Each structure stands twice: as structure tokens, then as C-alpha cells.
Amino acid sequence: METITKAPNAVNLIENKKYKLVAEDIVASYDNVIAVKNVTMKFKEKAVTALIGPSGCGKTTFLRCLNRMHELSKNAKISGRVLLDGEDLYSNHQDPIINRRKIGMVFQKPNPFPTMSIYDNVAAGLKLNGLRNKTILDEIVKGCLEMVYLWDEVKDNLKKPGMSLSGGQQQRLCIARALAIQPEVLLMDEPASSLDPIATQKIEEMMNELKKEYTIIIVTHNMQQAMRVSDYTGFMYLGELIEFGETKQIFENPLKEITAKYVQGQFG
Amino acid sequence: MITVEQRAEFRTHFRYNVGRRLVIDKIVKGIVFACVVMAIIPLGSILLEVFTNGSAALSIEFLTQIPGAIGTGEGGISPAIQGTLLLIGMSSLIGVPIGILSGIFLSEFGDNRYGKAIRFFNDVLAEFPTIVIGIFAFLVIVLVFGNFSLWAGTFALSIIMLPIITRTTEESLKLVPVTYREAGFALGIKRWAVITRIIIASAKSGMITGIMLAVARIAGETAPLIFTILGSSQFFSGFDGPMDALPLRIWRISMLPYDSAQAQGWGAALVLILIVLSINIGVRYVFLRKSGGAFRFRSVRRRL
Amino acid sequence: MTRLIDPHLNKLSFLMEKMGNLAAQSINLAIDSYLGGKNARNEAYELSSQIANLYEEIGTLTFDMILKYQPVARDFRLIRSSIEISYGFTRFGRYAYDITVVRDIYGDLSECKNEVIYTISGEIKHMINLAIQCFATLDLGKAKQLQTDEDLVDKYYNKHLPMLINSKNIKCALADALVLRYLERIADHASFMGESVNYIVAGNRTIR
To answer: Taken in order B244, B247, B248, B253, is the CA torsion positive or negative?
Structure first.
């Protein structure tokens, strides 16, 4: 893992105030394959930003750069800056663990911890980080499960294994788990790709609520989903950010020919 | 693109030999089943033999008395049982923690040159003839301290345990899907907590199987014990004195030309099998029973 | 690679073409019969109702496409503009019919010889063709021209409508006023079509 940090630029800092998260000149590679080429993107606060693009275009890698998960992969390299509220996550004095507590992540496949109960799954991030106060834990677990509309379905079975839930419920459990550590930004890597339409709809409705409080960045293959849930959309192709703008503009009137071709389903 | 005609052709080609394929399927199934039976026959016959021959020797006296005079058929194997239990317990106390920790090291941090070297030597150690390890213990402990001792036996057996536990721990940790690790890291959980609280909890069953394999292995080891604890007819008298163990006793008395001694040998073999079996079942029950998931791992740690 | 939506888009353009031809035919008929003093009310009604049927058909088709394929980008803009333009065509048919109705109500109008009507109707015929061409070729130059033409028709209309007050012949003045009004509306819709075409190509309605 190699981090190259540039000195913060005074002009940029002023401009970046409007944005919750700013990624600058991100170049990421693994096994000497460059997956993300010089991507600069700014994410507005309390809005949903969708990343679309064909398979292998670097969306997921880019997303993983935003909370320093990419560097955990084998032979991963990254350069560039990621600013959360103007603070560089990649600067040397920042512990990646602290960053990951500020930026929650939801994965493609539901992955509740197999040995833990529903309650423990939600509480895992807090408990394993040393929070022991039972009343606070109970309150947070209840709050997070309510936020993902799961509380009513599981309130009588909190001691059951997390794995006993259905796929859609498991994914919502994972979102609750990510919310429990009280992040400011939520990264979602195709959160509904393995779910049925009803479960997908529930997740999307939930995102609509969550965006009142969180800055959400979602990677999705489903363009209709991007249209439904996001305020801003970025189109990535071959590791580059081709076009980035308001979702309505990207889908109604894309400026680049290749974006138009992709969203119209002419390739991808 | 395959044309419609080609596809129709493939279809007929694919369907004409259904009967033959079903027959082949049945034959292969039969062969596989036969192999299973062949593998079970020796196991079953050994168990049967040991039970039929050994149960006759079992008695309270046999289990609680020290060995009687040679050839009388009196006395018991109590010191040997005591020795075996002590050896298993002490070797596990040394071998299990070291083995698990090195397994964790290899799986979590061993993706480099050092890890590869350690893995290689670990595999070599696993294939080492145990008698060589016995001689080694004889050289570095028995000769240095001047007497055969339980310490020397423990030393030799924990060396035998180590590579097995290390390897199985590493393998079962590696089987835990990377998604759980990532989920843990994404929650901002520290690495050691992810390893101890999430990954080990998921890999527990495989790790315990490995430990049980190692325990069964050392419980039956004879050769290294000849050089280390020597054997004795007396109860435990100190960690620095010679001691008896079941495999050693079996080996000794079964070489005697008396029928009564051989009957005792069968009895001792049965006791050894029962000990290994009950340790295995007991440990599995304690560590792996379903407790609803909640707080499972922590309660286990407390019991440890 | 053929996308699932492509056959439907082809059908849409076929229907639009058919509709455009009918609209042009009905307006030519209405103007010619008005200027030539013929009563063509029934034919114009027939054409207008054919156009209305096509409008229904296009409505169903576009609705189908939006529901099934959730079109985006240019597909979406084409469909949205087609809905607008097909509505424009129904207006053409309707105004053509209205013009023939004027002729039908007032009877013989051969004494009225208003040069303005001649000039504007020539202009309108030209604009209709231009509008249809513009949609068929997605040529923004034609869209721009439609706008200039519409300005011109507006100027004519604003100048000559007040002048009808001084007309001696009330019957002629009323008929001319109505026809002028219809022609002005037609020109308006033709220029809207130019804007719709601009939206298909550039994603906005302002013609530069």
C-alpha cells in the first residue's frame, strides 16, 4: 500500500466546503491493473449519488477507495486525495479505522456475521469498538433497526442468528449494522443486486428516508434504480469518470455520446 | 451464433445416448459406494476386535490398580491412564495455544516470504517421523537433565501437535469468506478484534476438528514416549520423573508371552479408544453446541 | 444489436410519417378549397378523424414503450417529442377542418379577394412541409427557419387583422378574420414542432 499525499490547495478547500466528500485525482490499481484512472468527484451533502457503468469499469474499486477499503486488497495501490469535510482521509496522521467509522459501507451480498444474533450483528460495530453500556446499545440497535424498517419484523427474535433472516432482511440488517456506528457517509455497493423486487423496493424507500440524514453513494448496475433513488449520477467507463451531473440530466440529456449509448442500453 | 438447425442437431446428439449415460451414472455410483464400504470395513473390524477382546479385561480393578507381577494377569493400568491424560492435557496446554497463534499468523499475516518459509517448515515437521522427535526430546531434555521425565514426553508430544494444529487452523481461517472480514473492517473494527471476534468465531468448528485430530494423534503415539517418559508401574510422582502411558503399556504387555497380559493389552487399547472418543465428543459438545448465536463466542472464552 | 425497443421506435416513426402526410394533405385541401371556393367540409372531416385515430394509436404505443422499456436519453426525448408533434398534427387536421367549415357556413365567398390570405396560406403550406421535413431529418436548420417563418406570419397577422375593421364587406371580413386566425394557429404549432425537434437533438427547447 502506497499513499501519495499532495499538499492541500487553499483554493480547493474553500470550494470544497459545499461538498461532504471530495475525491481528487484518484488512481487505483491492483495486481498492476489500473482500475480507476484519475477520477475526481464531489459528493453533495444529504444527497444520493449513483455510480453507473458497465462491469469492470472501476465503480466498485473507486467506492472502496472512499473509505480506504481498497488498500486491504492484495497488491493494491492508490494515489490521490479523499476529503471528508475538507479533511484528507489519506493523510499520514489519519488512522484508516477512524475513517471507516465515519463512512459506513454496505456490500453487494448480504453478509451478516454468521455466528452472531440479529442484535449482536447490529451492535457489533459498537461492541467490538468497546462500547459496553447496555442501555445505549439497546437504544441504538432499536433505532437502527427502525430506520431500516426491520424492527417490527424482528423485535421478538433479536436473539435469533442473523443468518436466519431472508435475503432482503439480511441486507437491511447489514445496513442497520452500518448505521449503528453513526457514520456520516454511507457507501452502498450494489445493495439490491441479489434481492427480489419487493426487497429492492424496500431498500430504495429506505434510502429515500436515509438521505435526509446521510450522504449516500451507491454503485448500481440497474439504471432504473439509479434514476429512482439518486439525485446525482456519475457514469464511469474503463476506469474513467465520463460524465457526472444531475440524474435527470444524465438520463434525459446526456452530453457525451458514450453515456447516451450506455444508458440507452446500446452496450454494456 | 448457433443456427436453429445446428441447435436441433446438437439436441438429437445430446439426447440419443441417455440410456447409456444413466447406466454409467449407476456404475460410478456403485464404485463410489463400494470404496466407502472398503474404507469402513477395516475401521469397523478394528473397533469390533478391540471391543470384543478388550471388554473382557475391563473391571474396576483393571482401571484403578497399578500393574501386578508380570504374567499373573493381576493388577491394572491405572498409572498408564493417568499418564496419558496428563500427557494429553499438558501437551495441549503448550501445543494448542502456540499452534493456533501460528495458524492465525500464517492465515492473516503470512502472505509473504516469511509466511511461505514457515508454512514449508511446518509441513516438513508434520511429516517428520515421530521417533525422530522422540530422539530429539531425549537429547535436549532427558540427557541434559539426566532422567526420563513427563516434561520430556510433553515436549515431544507438543512438537508433534504443533504442525497439525497450525495447518488446520490456517486452513479453516482461510475458509472464512473475505466478505466477513470486509464487513468487520468497514465497521471500523480493529484488526485484532476482527480476527478474534468474527473470523475465529466463524472458523471455530474447523479449528476444533484440527485440535481433536492432534489430540487423537498424540494419544496414540508410542515411539517418542519410549525415549522420553520411559514407562513405569507407579502413579504420578512428579513432572521430572518417568511415567507410564497407555500406548506404551499396550506395547509392553502385548509383547509378553502370557495370554493374560495380552488380554490386558486389549483392555488398555479399548480404554485408549474410549478416552480419545470421549474427549472428542466432550469438546465438541462444549464448544460447538447451538446456543442461539447470542454471546456464544464470549461464553466459550469464559469457559476456556 | 437490436434492442427490444427498436421495432417499436420504427413503428412510431412509420406512424408519425403517415400522420404528417395526412396533416399536410388536409391543410392543402382546406387552403386550396377555401381559395378555390370549393366546399370540402366532408373530406376535411374524414382526414381529421383519420389523424385523430392515428393520434390515439401513437398514444398507446408511446405509453407502452415508456412502461415496458423505461426509455432514457435520446429514445426518451424522441418519444416525448413524438407525443407533442403528433398532437400538433391533430391540431393541423382540426384547423384544416375549421377552415372548410368557414367556407361551408358562409357559402360562396368568391367576391372576397384578400391578397393577405393568399400570401399567408402559401407561407403556411411551405411551413407544414418544412415542419414534417424537420422532424423526418432532425435538421435543426429547418427548425430555425420555422421560427423565422412563424415570426413573419405573426407580423402579417398582427398587421392585417386590425385592417379588416375597415372592410366594407362584413361577410368577407368575418370569414377572412377566422381563416387568418386558424392559419396563425397552424404556424404556431409548426414552430412548436421545430422546438420539439430541437429537444430531440439537443435536449432543450431553445433554438439557437
So the answer is: positive
**What length is written for chain B?**
304
Question: How high is the pLDDT of residue B290?
Answer: 57
Interstrand relation of A19-30 and A215-219 (parallel, antiparallel or unpaired): unpaired
Residues 6+ apart with CB under 8 A from B122: B102, B106, B162, B163, B166, B167
Q: Rounded to whole angstroms, how far apart are CA atoms B205 and B169?
A: 10
- The enclosing H or E element of A234 equals strand A232-237
Q: β-pairing, A76-84 with A87-88? A: antiparallel
Query: Are A252 and C71 inside 8 Å of each other by CB?
Result: no
Closest Cβ opposite residue A264 in set C75, C203, C204? C75
Asked if C79 and C66 touch (Cβ cutoff 8 Å), the reply is yes
Is residue C80 within 8 A of residue C39, CB to CB? The reply is: no
Residue type, A35: A
Which of the other chains make 3 or more beta carbon contacts under 8 angstroms with chain B? A
B299: which chain A residues are within 8 Å (Cβ-Cβ)? none
A159/B contact by beta carbon, under 8 A: yes
The answer to whether residues B191 and B105 touch, using CB atoms and an 8 Å cutoff, is no
CB-CB under 8 Å, B292 with A129 = no
The residues in A 212-241 lying below 8 A from C, measured between CB atoms, are: 223-224, 227
- Please say whether the beta carbons of C201 and A251 come within 8 A: no
User: In this complex, which of A160, A162, A181 lies closest to B187 when CB atoms are compared?
Assistant: A181
Enter the pTM of the model: 0.81
Q: Which residues pair with A26 in a beta bridge?
A: A39
Q: For residues B152 and B159, what is the distance between their CA atoms, to the nearest angstrom?
A: 11
Please name the chains neighbouring A, where neighbouring means 3+ C-beta pairs under 8 angstroms: B, C
Alpha-carbon gap: A138 to the closest alpha carbon of chain B (Å): 14
Sorted by sequence, the CB contacts under 8 Å of residue B211 that are 6+ apart come out as: B92, B96, B99, B165, B168, B283
Q: Is B53 left (phi over 0), alpha (psi -120 to 50) or beta?
A: alpha
How many CB pairs (< 8 A) connect A and B? 94
* Cell output for B173: 481461517
- For residue B216, pLDDT beyond 80: yes
CB atoms inside a 10 Å sphere around CB B45 = 10
d(CA B216, CA B212): 6
pLDDT band at residue B288 under the 50/70/90 scheme? confident
Q: What gap in Å lies between CA A118 and CA B165, rounded to an integer?
A: 32
- Residue carrying C-alpha cell 500464517: B106
Q: Compute the half-sphere exposure of residue B185: CA atoms within 13 Å on the CB side of its CA.
A: 17
The whole-chain average pLDDT of chain B stands at: 88
What is d(CA C197, CA A224) in angstroms, rounded to the nearest whole number? 26
* pLDDT, tens digit (0-9, with 9 covering 90-100), for B68-107: 887 777 888 899 999 999 999 999 999 999 999 999 999 9
Taking contacts as CB-CB distances below 8 angstroms, the residues of chain C near A223 are 72
C67 CB within 8 Å of a chain A CB: no
